[in-house]
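Morning, I've got a small favour to ask if you have a moment. I owe you a coffee for this, so here goes:
>
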Amino acid sequence: MPQYSFVSIWEVEAPIESVWAAIKESEKWPSWWKYVAKVVELKKGDENGVGGVRRYTWASPLPYKLTFNTRVVEVEEPHVIVGIAEGELNGTGRWQLSQKGAVTRVQYNWDVSTGKRILNLLAPIARPIFEWNHNKVMEAGGEGLARLLNAKLVSNTSGE
């Protein structure tokens, strides 16, 4: 299966606590993140969210959707959330937040392989398109977060 490693960075002029709340409450993502089609809580986690499982359905600029479950395995409020994805994408996602002055930096590391047969078959020729697609989805997330928080988006980058 093809492996992908992405790093996305959003820098937002907003308090880390506000950014943390928006990221942690992923069931609300569809209201502000353009390409999040649906989030369903399958299992409640502990008081920090560890052990919780959610099913995510993502749309994209390309004409396909991906659905996978993510189990939260680590939470260090308000700095780190780590989840393990299984389904049409398999791997690890890590949110890391830090604050410098008025700016909160959000870094998302997404190390995954595709579990969808057609994506695996197309990967050798379509990899650059899949990477572009991922970057557009993440850029929309940074823009949506800034709108949600009525904050200035200082930086919004994605790549491999």
Observations:
- The chain has two helices and eight strands.
- The CA atoms of residues 17 and 78 lie 7 Å apart.
- Residues 3-159 form a domain with the Alpha-D-Glucose-1,6-Bisphosphate; Chain A, domain 4 fold (CATH 3.30.530.20).
